[in-house]
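Chapter summary example: a protein plus adenosine-5'-diphosphate.
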Amino acid sequence: MNILVINCGSSSLKYQLINMNNEEVIAKGLVERIGMEGSVVKHRTTGKEEVLIEEPMKDHKKALELVLNALVDSNYGAIKSMDEIGAVGHRVVHGGEKFANSVLIDDEVMEALNECIDLAPLHNPPNIMGIEACKALMPNTPMVGVFDTAFHQTIPMANYIYPLPYELYEKYGIRKYGFHGTSHKYVSLKAAEILNKDIEKINVITCHLGNGASVCAIQGGKSVDTSMGFTPLEGLAMGTRSGNIDPAIIPFIMEKENLTVDEVNELLNKKSGVLGISGISSDFRDLEEAAAEGHERAQLALDVFCNRVKKYIGAYVTMMCHVDALVFTAGIGENSVFVRKKICDGLECIGIEIDEELNDIRGKEAIVSKDTSPVAILVIPTNEELMIARDTLEIINK
Ligand code: ADP
């Protein structure tokens, strides 16, 4: 069976059509600038040239219509008819406390998704638009919602409640939710597979280090803590997000710099992190190059980033007592030899011993720890789309 995986942003739509018999991608693409001038579908069927379809798209429904046309096109398409799409898996950012697992989408679920908008006002509305568009164009195809937060619903209360007045949790659902759940789940399962161990019997720390970054403690296959929180702003220093700071800094800078709530939000989410510290870039390739040429603030940004990751690893090792594997994934985790080395350096005291030669790889699956390392260190390219497709297949087969 073929499963279409859809990930809708406010003006973008990413998709993959996956043949679940062999888990191979048969077509994938990206729609950009939905609702704006210059909107385009970039489509590629595996084994064929990429095509650009430039057409006005006033909304996600029009975008999806063009994607479906591309998929069945007789020249550059991948399938003969839409009947060859057995189900659709939608990435949904926030499932609140309602969704601890992926779910078959029906009217009740749509209602619950709408109730979660408050928690993710930027992300959930486009996800919902994507689902609505699919429902309109493929009314008879089953659809499954796969949530970024669901994997973390196993986190115990003592780890998800903030030390704030308890009523704020009851009234507004203010608690740690965590994100990147699909990725943490995928790479932890993959790590167990590579190590030939039962996921239920091992403890893993996963580091999803991309533009957004989070660390997760996984005990017996279940998330027990993660660095992101009520929103993706908590935790590590990221490309442009501050991560943890003293909360008193916020009212202080609002007063000093005369900032509104929106402006301070923008400062913390878009102008901080390694971009804020270095003043040059949020991209680790730029930072590593600049640091190598002696740019002190680029070096400082890298130091801050790596120190934060180290602290979470240390905290999670002590929390779980025993750790079998440490996994690096996402753009930085998969590609930055330098960052992986810098994070692991000095962690020998807790059984993390990286092998410099083995670590010299980019973008592929590998074990990079020394033979003597009590903790296996792995690099695993994430594959959220495949995880979504697997969940979708499992749910519709139920
Ligand atoms: P997201 O999905 O959160 O947008 P990605 O997981 O694609 O992010 O990661 C993007 C980041 O990965 C880039 O900002 C860049 O810093 C980093 N990156 C990609 N390739 C390399 C590389 N070869 N060396 C160092 N960092 C890299």
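Key point: The pocket of adenosine-5'-diphosphate is lined by residues 210-212, 239, 283-285, 330-332, 335-336, 362 (CB under 6 Å).
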